[in-house]
Amino acid sequence: MLSVETGQIMGVFRSFIFLLSFQLLYVANGSMVWLNQTGYEDLVVAINPSVPEDANIILNTKRMIKDASNYLFEATKHRFFFKSVKIIIPKTWKKNGNYSRLKTESYNKADVIIADPFLKYGDDPYTLQYGGCKEKGRYIHFTPNFLLNDGLVNIYGERGRVLVHEWAHLRWGVFDEYNTDAPFYVSINSEKASVEATRCSAGVIGKPVLQSCSGSKCEERDCKYDGQLYEAGCKFVADKNQNHTSSIMYMQSLPSVVAFCDKNTHNGEAPNMQNKMCNYKSTWEVIMESEDFINSSVVNGSAPPFETTFSLLQTQDRAVSLVLDVSGSMASYSRIEHLYKAAEVFLLQIIEVGSWVGIVTFQSSASIQSRLQQITSDAVRQNLVKNLPTIASGGTNICAGVRTGLQVKYNVEISPGSVTYGSEIVLLTDGEDSGMAACLNEVKQSGAIIHTIALGKAAAKELEEFSTITGNFSKFLPSKLIEAFSAITSGSGDISQQSIQLESKQIDIKSYEWINSTVTIDETVGNDTFFVIAWSATKPFFFLKDPKGKEYGSSDFTLDNLNSNAARLGINGTAEVGDWHYYIKNEGTTTQNISITVTSRAASSVVPPVNVAAYMKKANIAPNPVVVYAEVSQGFLPVLGATVIATVEKDGVAPVSLQLLDNGAGADTVKNDGVYSRYFTSLKSGGRYSLKVSAQGRNTTVRLGLRPNRALYVPGYIENGKVQMNVPRPEIADEDIQAKLGSFSRTSTASLVLDNIPTVGFPPCKVTDLDALIENETVVLSWTAPGDDMDVGKAVQYIIKSSDNLLVLKDEFDNATSVNSSDLTPQEAGSKETFKFKPENLRIENGTIIYIAVRAVDNENLTSDMSNIAKATWYIPPKASEPSDGGGSGGGGSVGLLCLALPRKETIKSRYSKAYKSALTLGGLIDQTLPPLPRKGEVSPHFLKERGECQGCQYAIEGSTFLSGW
C-alpha cells in the first residue's frame, strides 16, 4: 500500500535529482579550444575507431593544419593561427611509444572528426551548425579519403584552405556564400538585367557551363536558358586566375583568394546562407564582431609567431570509479535504495564491455568496496552489484571520496604508467561539505573526468566546479535516478558498444488501472536489450509481447532481493525487430509511480544505430530565448521525417511538451539536416531546467538524407580561355542512401542552468523562409508562420514592406513602401502562409525586381526582427540563342520567366495562338508562322523550345491558365 508519506517521498525525490555531466550539453561548450592571445590552443582532432590504421592520415592531418595555420594568419590579416593541436588515435590502432594518454579530451568533444560516412556518398567536408549567425558549430567532418586522395585537391582546393573555410563555420558562425540549390539569380547592373552566379565577391569571373556525360565520356557546352534561370545542371566555372582576393567562404580553392568578403566586396544580392542567416552582413564583419577578434590584436610579421605543435593521444580502455555517498542523510527519502537501483542498471546494462569499474563509498571517511574490475562477462557485472551500498550513516566528506576514487586507478595496471589521465569518476552525493575547495586543484591535476550527480537542494554548490574544471557541463534531471546514470556513456566514438535508451517513461497509475504502450526495436539495435520496470510501492502485474506475439510474464523478469522495487528482463541474442507491447496494472490500493526503461545496443558493428542527442542552449538574439535541439542521425546521415517531442521540466513547475521541427523555420536553421529545433519560451524563473526528448520514426514516413551545406564541389576551372572540367560529382539517387531504417524509438536527455530570465515577453520569431514570385502582374508571397512567442502560438498581424532597392528595405524597413495586408490573419506557428498583392505605383515590365520583407507583431505589440528579404523578378531573355558571353565579369547571360494569364473560356487553339504571339511580342521578336497546335500530351512548360520551330523562343510559359487548362 502506498502511503501519503511514500508518495511525497517519491515526488520530492523526482524533483531533487540533478546530474552535472559533460556528455549531453556539448553543443554549447564542448570544444576545448581557447585563444591564447592570437594562437588557438588545444584544437582536438579525433579519428573514428572504425577507420583502418594508416599513418598517412596522421601525417596529412598535420600538414593540413600547418598549411591552414599560415592561410588563416593571412586571411585574418595577421590575427589568428593554430598554436597547439591534439590528435586522438583510436585504441583499435597499434600502441606506439609516441602516443600519450588522454586527459579530459574525448572523441565526443573533438573539433574535427575523421570518419568514413555510413554510406559511400562522397567525401564532401562539412561543418555541423545548429545555431544562427555568430553561433559556434558542433564539429568539422573529414573523410579519410579526403585526407589521403590527392586527386580531391583539385575538386575542393588545398586541404589547409578547406580547413580554414570550415573553421570559419565552426568558430565564428558564418555561412557559405555559394548555394548549390540556387546557383544563379537575376540581378540589375547599370539598369540592365542579367543572370549572375551566386558568389562573393560578384567580381569573380567565369562562365556557365553544362557538362553531360555518357559513361566515362563527357562533353561541355554553354548553358541554355530554361524558364526562370539556366537549365538544370548548369554550373558556374570560374577562371583559375582572378584579380579578386575574396572570398574564402565562396571558393577558397582559387589561388588568388586569400581573404573573406568584407563590407566593400560583399555581394548582398546573392541568395546564399550568409545573407539569409547574417542579415546581409559580410563574413568579415561577422568575424570582427566575435569575441576572438575583440580579444586579439594584429601580430607583426609575415608569418605566425609559432609553429603548430602536435600531441598524439591514444584512447585507452574506459576506467570508471563509482564514488557513492552513504552518509546519514542518504537514508532520507529512500535515497540509498534509489542509488542502489540506478547504480545496478549502470553496472548491468550501461557500462560497456571491456571497461574497468571500481566502487568507493564515503561518509566522514572513504573506503574501497571494489577495486577496478574489467567487464568481461555478466558474472563480473553481478559481482560488482554485490558491492553496492545498502546502508547509510555518518557525516559527509566529499573530498575523501574523490581522493579515494582517484587512488583506485593506481592499484590496477590497465595501461603503462597506471595514471588517472582519462579516467572517470561518477560522484553521487546529497550533502554539503565545507572542505570541498581543498581538493579542487587535485581534481584538475588528475586529468580525470568527473560526472556529478547531486541529490537534493542541500548538495554542495561546489560540485559544479568539479565538472567545470574537468571539462564537464551541467545537467539536471528532475526524474528517476536511472536516467542520470544512463546518460553516462563512453566518449570514445565507438557507438556500436554504447548502451542506447529506447524508452524511459514514468507514469502515475491509479489503483487497479492498466496502462499499455509500445516501444519499437529497429534493425540497427537489438543486442543486450533490457526491459526494466520499477515501482514506488506495490509490485504491479505486468507482461510483455514481442512482435511475433510471444509473451513474457512477470515470472520471466528477474527480481533482486536487495532491490525489491524493480524487475528486469534481458532478451537473449538479438531482440526481434518491430513493436514490443507492454501492459502494466497497478494492483496497489492507491496511485503509484511506475517507470519503464528499455535499453539496447547496436545489432552490428558495421551498421551504426539510429542515434538521438538532445541539447538546450540560450540563443544569442535578444531577448535570449532558450532553444531546444535534437539531432537524429544514423552514422553521419540525418534522419528525416521523425516525430520528435521534447519535455522540459523544472522543480516545482508543471512539465511543458513541445514538438521539435526540422522545417528550416523559427529556431530551425536548416531544413532537412536531421536537427529538430524549437524555441522554449515558458521560462518561469532561474534555475536548472531538464530536457527529455522522445524521437519516434515510422517506416512509412522516416528516411535518410544527405548533409546539406557541404563543401563546394568545384566543377572545373577556366585556364587560358579553355574550360578544364573536374570529374563530375557522383550522382546520388535517393534510393542509394536509403538503408532499411524502418520504425524506431529513442530517448535522450539534457539540461540547462539559467540565471538571467527575461523580464519582458518574447516577440514572434524572425521569418527566415520568405519566398516571392511574380504571377500575372501579382506578387505571390509564401512563408512559415511565426508564433506569438517566438515559434509558439499565433501572431496577431503582419507588416509587409516592399522596395525596388534592397538596401532601402534592409536599412530603412519602416520607411519602405507598405503593402496592405489588413485582410491577412496569421495562422498557428509552423503553418504555411501565402499572400498575393499587386504593387502600387509600379509597372511590372521586363527587368522588374521587387524586394519584399515581413515582420510579425504579437498581442503585446512586440515585433519580430525583419525577415529574410525575398526577391520577385519579371525578366524575359533578350535573345533566343544561348549566351555568347559565358559569363565574363557578369557571371552569365540572361534568363526569363514569362507568366501569361489567359481567359479560361477561350479555346485551346486560341489560347495557344495568343500565348505564342505574346511571347514573341514581349521578347522583341518578329512575328513568325504559328507552328501546328501540339497534340494533347505533348505540351510541357518548355514546348516552344522543344518543338524547335521557333528558334528565338527560349521561354517557359509557367503558371498560366494556358498550361493548367491544357
Structural class: alpha+beta
The helix tally amounts to 20
Largest sheet: 7 strands, mixed
Tell me roughly what share of residues is in helical segments.
10-25%
Low-confidence stretches: 1-29, 412-418, 473-479, 880-966
| Average pLDDT taken over every residue | 85
CATH architecture of the domain at 1-18 and 317-496: 3-Layer(aba) Sandwich
Count of β-strands:
50
CATH topology title of the domain at 1-18 and 317-496: Rossmann fold
> For this structure, what is the CATH homologous superfamily of the domain at 1-18 and 317-496?
von Willebrand factor, type A domain
Distance between the termini: 75 Å
Short description:
17% of the residues lie in helices and 31% in strands. By secondary structure, the chain is α+β, with helices and mostly antiparallel strands.
Detailed description of the structure:
Among the domains are: 198 residues, von Willebrand factor, type A domain (Rossmann fold); 174 residues; 103 residues, Immunoglobulin-like (Sandwich), CATH 2.60.40.10; 94 residues, Sandwich (Immunoglobulin-like); 58 residues, no CATH class. 17% of the residues lie in helices and 31% in strands. It has 20 helices and 50 strands. The strands form twelve sheets. The protein has a seven-stranded mixed β-sheet. Strands 1-23-22-19-20-21 form a six-stranded mixed β-sheet, sandwiched between helices. Strands 14-13-17-41-42 form a five-stranded mixed β-sheet, with no helix packed on it. The longest helix is centred in the first third of the chain and has 21 residues. It is globular, with a radius of gyration of 31 Å. The N and C termini lie far apart (75 Å). The N terminus and C terminus are likely disordered. GO terms for molecular function: intracellularly calcium-gated chloride channel activity; metal ion binding; metallopeptidase activity. This is Chloride channel accessory 1. Keywords: Chloride, Glycoprotein, Hydrolase, Membrane, Metal-binding, Metalloprotease, Protease, Signal, Transmembrane, Transmembrane helix, Transport, Zinc.
